[in-house]
Amino acid sequence: MKLTSFLSGIGIPEEMEKLCREYSGDSTLILDLRNNTGGNIQLANTMRSYFLREKILIGYSSFTTGTGQLSKMRERWAEPHPSSRWKGKLIVLVNAMTYSASEDFLWGLQWLDHVQILGTTTGGGSGRPRELPLGSHLDLRLSTCITYDRHKRPIEFFGIEPDGGIPDHLEQKLSQMHR
Length: 179
What we know:
The protein has a single domain (12-177), classed as 2-enoyl-CoA Hydratase, Chain A, domain 1 (Alpha-Beta Complex). The longest helix is centred in the N-terminal third of the chain and has 11 residues, at 12-22. By secondary structure, it is α/β, with parallel strands linked by helices. The chain has helices at 12-22, 41-49, 101-106, 168-177; strands at residues 28-32, 56-63, 74-78, 89-94, 115-119, 129-135, 138-143, 145-148.
């Protein structure tokens, strides 16, 4: 499944519900998020919930306080979807153009036994940007939040490191499918 953005209204939750119903626990879903620059964060969080098997600590976050400081880190938890869950394995393909809501989707899936993230380090830009107009058709985008993984490593700027590269045989198979 290739997902180029987390856009509302294009049937992503419905497609996930269908996949969860139709495939057994011995299935592997390959989700291609390469070049997915984000979209709707709530949709990304809902999508993540299909792949959780229990309530987990996904990481931490700190928000800007308006005084040039960051708030204290707060724990962030996520729960499985209330009615549907993917029972098999998940392989997620990522690259440096995978960021924003895509990183929110990945946030907390790293290190789960049934999830493997392959590719290159993500873009490191999930920071809930605030846009400030500078005039002359210029805008400045500033992160208002720093997200951290479960080991308290920041995702902003550093990205999410994959478990490994994409094997050649998988890359060849994917390129044939995308023709």
